[in-house]
Design brief:
By secondary structure, the chain is of the alpha/beta class. Helices cover 34% and strands 15% of the residues.
């Protein structure tokens, strides 16, 4: 899961930009992941590393490790391109950077539309983000057109709540329903209600921040508990002779959740693959269920389409 080489933080409606991981490190991590056996790479225009990800994939294709059809790449439509007339051109930019003819899964990154344009985080003179009011149903129709054109195989959403999903599902003339909803999901925020709803609609729930969050003090409450230090997770890790991280990842798989795990080191990339080597008992699954406290590490901002004020 090649995630976030550079991004920014929302706080009090203001945006702070920071760089997390050098792009060259991301490129190397993708090559290592493919060598280890990973085939699903979760990317996004926002991460500003699609050229590097594409180069890594092309190199592994060229040396015979994989074929293009073996790779499942997820791309994301960034919030400044939610206006329907911007969707296809945004997709074309990603395709060009990746050196792909098509993207396997293309999803709306967030329902929080920002002012259209090439500035990823448009702000006013006070440093406040400039919102846009976009009809997400029209955005979805533009996504459907990309699928019809053969530029994407499947389309989905990210950070949508039930109400926003239903808005798409109930849209007159719907051609393709979202195949997935990618959301923050971990034992402290297990998204049980949203997962049940998505399953009832045959929508796959995809978990990001599955191991909690990196704890940047600029936006994460430092008093919030560290997921991987949880006593129950650690007790189960000892029981199964696995790491707490692997227990948290295995929990998601057994719930029918597609899980994304971010790593840039060969050891962690290899270790995460061991998630298939063991199975949690029903009793242990219930113990992890009990950890839920609706703790959201990744917060957004005061936007009209803010999805997390609803129960789910």
């Amino acid at each position: 899961h090649c995630l976030l080489n550079s991004t920014g933080l929302f706080h009090d409606g203001k945006f702070t930009f920071f760089t997390e991981v050098p792009k060259s490190k991301c490129e190397e991590a993708v090559k290592v992941a493919i060598e280890v056996g990973y085939r699903h790479i979760d990317g996004a225009y926002l991460y500003e590393n699609e050229k590097e990800v594409g180069r890594a994939i092309q190199e592994k294709i060229a040396d015979g490790t994989v074929k293009r059809e073996n790779i499942f790449y997820t791309g994301k439509l960034w919030s400044t391109f939610n206006a329907p007339e911007m969707v296809s051109s945004a997709l074309e930019k990603s395709l060009k950077s990746l050196q792909f003819d098509y993207i396997d899964l293309y999803i709306i990154h967030t329902p929080l539309s920002l002012k259209s344009g090439d500035d990823l985080f448009p702000v006013d003179g006070n440093g406040k983000l400039i919102f846009d009011n976009v009809d997400l149903c029209a955005t979805w129709e533009a996504m459907e057109a990309c699928k019809d054109a053969g530029l994407v195989k499947s389309i989905g959403v990210s950070n949508f709540n039930r109400r926003q999903l239903e808005m798409i599902l109930n849209k007159p003339g719907l051609k393709y329903k979202p195949v997935c909803n990618q959301v923050e999901c971990h034992p402290y925020l297990n998204q049980r209600k949203l997962l049940e709803f998505c399953k009832s609609k045959n929508i796959v729930l995809v978990a990001f921040s599955a191991l909690g969050s990196h704890r940047d003090e600029r936006w994460v409450d430092q008093s919030s508990p560290l997921l991987l230090e949880d006593p129950i997770l650690n007790a189960l890790a000892k029981k199964y002779n696995q790491s707490p991280a692997l227990v948290a990842l295995r929990y998601q798989l057994q719930r029918g959740v597609v899980v994304l795990a971010k790593s840039f080191t060969r050891k962690h990339i290899e270790d995460n693959f061991k998630v298939f080597d063991f199975q949690l008992t029903e009793e242990d699954m219930k113990a992890i269920d009990s950890l839920n406290q609706n703790l959201r590490y990744d917060s957004f901002l005061d936007h009209p389409e803010y999805p997390f004020a609803d129960d789910y």
